[in-house]
Amino acid sequence: MSLFRLDASIRVEGSHSRVIADVVEQEWRSVHPAEPVVRRHVGVDPIPATTWATAVFAGRTPEASRTDEQQAALALAATLTDELIAADALLFAVPLYNFGVSQHFKSWVDMVVTDPRMAAGTQPILVGKPAVLVTVRGGNYRAGTPREGWDHATGWMRRILADVWNLDLKVVETEFTLVGVNPALDRFTDLARQLREEAEEQARRHGRELGTAVAITPPKAA
Ligand SMILES: Cc1cc2nc3c(=O)[nH]c(=O)nc-3n(C[C@H](O)[C@H](O)[C@H](O)COP(=O)(O)O)c2cc1C
To answer: Do 161 and 133 contact (CB within 8 A), yes or no?
Structure first.
């Protein structure tokens, strides 16, 4: 059994998404003490910005005519996809930035989708693979809040991971991580603490499930 973990925070120190993903990983680790964890730190070691376009056009270029750069882009897409296929469980830790999805996570997804095995319309090869998405936000956009609906990241991530890739996805959401940093949010200190405790409990539960879950075998093509 192996775990693939992706972190998209642009920081290492003080990262809430990393700490909560650590909780998930520790629970998985308690079931698999000696098994490997393959890591991608896309927030601090991003996919280069031009690689996606190179990979897209490489896929439309006859193999014999591909440049070295195109071959390298396709090789990277294959490596990223291999990491997903090889892992028995997946863990993604992705913050909200500027009301949208982390550009680093998006670039990584875009690259994976250039691999022919992950292309739109192909039989999904990750069907039923157990996965946990940890996502954190500085603010709070829940129903009834002044900025309800301003989180444009979580819905998209669910769409890709659960609906397009067909992962067996659990999501741990933590809000108000900027409480204690932004003084304007000081009045939400108790609520932030409560939300954090709930998220950590969810992370423990989903981490344990991730450790024991078995991927549903994809149906064989006729
Ligand atoms: C450049 C930048 C933009 C951000 N934009 C938002 C935002 O639009 N909404 C929000 O709720 N939090 C926003 N945040 C706050 C982060 O979501 C929050 O600090 C989160 O905890 C970051 O993840 P990390 O703790 O794992 O590093 C932003 C943070 C940064 C650095």
So the answer is: yes
E strands, 98-200, are 100-101, 130-136, 168-174
9-54 pLDDT, tens digit per residue, is 999 999 999 999 999 999 999 999 999 999 999 999 999 999 999 9
Proportion of the chain above pLDDT 90, given as a percent? 93
- Give CA–CA dist 50/216, Å, rounded: 35
The pLDDT value given to residue 222? 44
Question: What are the residues whose beta carbons fall under 8 Å from the beta carbon of 26, sequence distance 6 or more?
Answer: 207
Task: Tell me the percentage of the chain whose pLDDT exceeds 70.
Answer: 96
The dihedrals phi and psi of 21, each to the nearest 5 degrees, come to: -65, -30
CA–CA gap between residue 113 and residue 19 (Å, rounded): 28
Helix boundaries (H) for 60-153? 68-86, 103-114
**Which of 137, 148, 151 has the most ligand 1 atoms within 8 A of CB, as the residue to mutate?**
137
C-beta of 9 in contact with ligand 1 (< 6 A): yes
Give the per-residue pLDDT at 121.
86
* Cβ-based neighbours of 209, under 8 Å, separated by 6 or more: 130, 170
